[in-house]
Amino acid sequence: MTANATRVLVLNSGSSSVKYQLLDMADGSRLAVGLVERIGEETSRLAHTPLATGGAKRETEGAIADHEAALKAVAAELAADDLGLDSPELAAIGHRVVHGGLKFSAPTVIDDAVLKEIERLVPVAPLHNPANITGIRTAQALRPDLPQVAVFDTAFHTTMPEHAARYAIDVETADAHRIRRYGFHGTSHAYVSRKTAELLGKDPSEVNVIVLHLGNGASASAVAGGRCVDTSMGLTPLEGLVMGTRSGDIDPAVTFHLKRVAGMSEDEVDVLLNKKSGLIGLCGDNDMREIRRRIDEGDQRAALAFDIYIHRLKKYIGAYTAVLGRVDAVAFTAGVGENAAPVREAAIAGLEELGMAVDASLNAVRSDEPRLISPDYARVAVAVVPTDEELEIAQQTYALVKE
User: Fold this and answer.
1) What is the mean pLDDT of the chain?
2) How many of the other CB atoms lie within 10 Å of CB of 168?
3) Which of 37-40's residues contact partners 24+ apart within 8 Å by CB, and which partners?
4) How confident is the model at residue 41 (pLDDT cuts 50, 70, 90)?
5) C-alpha angle 174/270/153, rounded to 5°?
6) Which is the catalytic residue, given 24, 81, 153, 230?
7) What is d(CA 270, CA 283) in angstroms, rounded to the nearest whole number?
8) Which helix (H) or strand (E) holds 19?
9) What pLDDT sits at residue 14?
10) CA 242 to CA 246: how far, in whole Å?
11) CA distance 272 to 263
12) Residue 329, Cβ neighbours under 10 Å: how many?
């Protein structure tokens, strides 16, 4: 790695999409961002914004057959802005990998053994790890000489103690099939908990934070002194909070009941709980803005969905207060957490005995900056901290390759 190699390309490969950002770690600036979506469909779309040159967003549509073609298209867009993958300033490519199991607790340079382990975890992340693997292999083919680094969604949660990570099922069965709570959104929880400590003017080791990552996927974590001690998602991202299309916590016997009484197959139950539940199952919408609009118009179904969503949030805030013993801050992040003031207000309402409160005027302010929305008298700080998973991946990748 040369001294002027300070750029990191971050790739987030989904089943039919690739999100990417090119960052310069000399100052943390973004040089380009983009998205390829509908890969493999008749009409794919590539949106690319060259931030380094201040250029306008470029959008193209046309068939992009697979991830290899998608990354080649991305490389061409970057090259058009003199930011190509052949640049000597490119230090590494950082890949978001959803499931790393227990083996990977830190960013890892990818070799054949690492790829085999990621493949071994496909049964517990069938929707995510295969796409991540495809992105890695394609990037390796394009730049075989460049370090490729995996940053795992699960890594931040590997510090959970066994009593928090274990399910109360037969130990031999659990161990044989790697059944335990792994947790997800780890890069976001790591970034936000650290930024929350900075907002309070303290070192992360001094702060206990409840992080609420509220997007279409949603998760909570209890972070004690910079280390995760509990999180809401489990073996898969289905467990925990009410989400856009996922049910979150549910009696496991519901699945048996649906198979026996409704005659549903395993795949049908899987689709129901992952894609037809949560907010969309409760009221037909998974966009919080639309749900709030419907509530304002008197829609009772939307109001009930919102109340269920908030009730689950409160339960986790209360539970993690008990787990941590002392809470210094509650931090809201991700699309809903950062932008939906009514969600933040409702989630904290009634928790004054826990030392939590929201100032209505501060909560109403819209900003891209980390900020406090609690009144001065509140014992527990309530914060809005915009997440930046791509920057976190880039920082972890660059720190590793510098070593």
Assistant:
1) 94
2) 6
3) 38/64, 39/64, 39/65, 39/66, 39/67, 39/69, 39/70, 40/16, 40/64, 40/65, 40/66
4) confident
5) 60
6) 153
7) 19
8) strand 17-24
9) 78
10) 7
11) 13
12) 24
Alpha-carbon distance of 277 to 294, in angstroms, equals: 19
pLDDT band at 1 (very low <50, low <70, confident <90, very high): low
- Residue found under tokens 């609009």: 293
* Rounded distance between C-alpha atoms, residue 12 and residue 334, angstroms: 16
pTM: 0.92
**What is the pLDDT averaged over residues 270-285?**
95
- Residue 40 has phi, psi (to 5 degrees) of 90, -5
Q: Rounded to whole angstroms, how far apart are CA atoms 143 and 85?
A: 7
Q: Is 354 left (phi over 0), alpha (psi -120 to 50) or beta?
A: alpha
The predicted-structure confidence for 223-233, as pLDDT tens digits, reads as follows 999 999 999 99
The whole-number average pLDDT for the span 163-173 is 97
Closest CA to 387 of 209, 157, 149, 194: 194
**Residue 153 designated active-site:** yes
pLDDT 10s digits, 279-337: 999 999 999 999 999 999 999 999 999 999 999 999 999 999 999 999 999 999 999 99
**Helix (H) / strand (E) containing 364:** helix 360-364
In sequence order, which residues have a C-beta less than 8 Å from that of residue 67 and are 6 or more positions away?
Answer: 13, 18, 39, 131, 134, 135, 138
